[in-house]
Amino acid sequence: MSTSGQAMPGPSATADREIVIDRLIDAPRELVFEAFTQVRHLSQWWGPEGFTTTTRAFEFRVGGVWDFVMHGPDGTDYPEWITWTGIAAPERIELLHGESRDDPNAFETVLTFMPDGAATRIEMCTVFPTKELRDEAIEKHGAIEGGRQTLGNLASYVAEFVHKGAQG
Q1: Are 126 and 148 in contact (CB under 8 A)?
Q2: Are β-strands 92-98 and 77-88 bridged in parallel, bridged antiparallel, or unpaired?
Q3: Do 162 and 34 touch, CB atoms closer than 8 A?
Q4: Within 13 Å of residue 20, how many CA atoms lie on the same side as its CB?
């Protein structure tokens, strides 16, 4: 497995507002995609290490919402809100993520699921409204490390799921 996380250099018009994190996950693409699309899976692995979630609403469809609270390991609660803006199973999910429906600082994320032999390479590209919001997410909230941990939690969860399936 590998992970990387970095601001994406290059000629993109949004490069200075992006965070791109990828990871190779040792599971078929359909299973990794499913882990993103069903709340019974998401609630088991979403978030950085030590975080848990409580879902208030979940409807996976374009225009649907995942309204939830992330509980930090220090007891702090973080209201979260996601709406899906594009779904192309099992290759791509596009979403808008903020603290609430009207959050002016909400950011866009595109998740791309690419087969890599029997494994799946997932890329998570997040574009913030401004460079300042991106920099703040990195410096104050550890967005790159948090993203790496979140995809690490996904990899562990899916590996356990595959292992249990292989046993019967």
Answers
A1: no
A2: antiparallel
A3: no
A4: 11
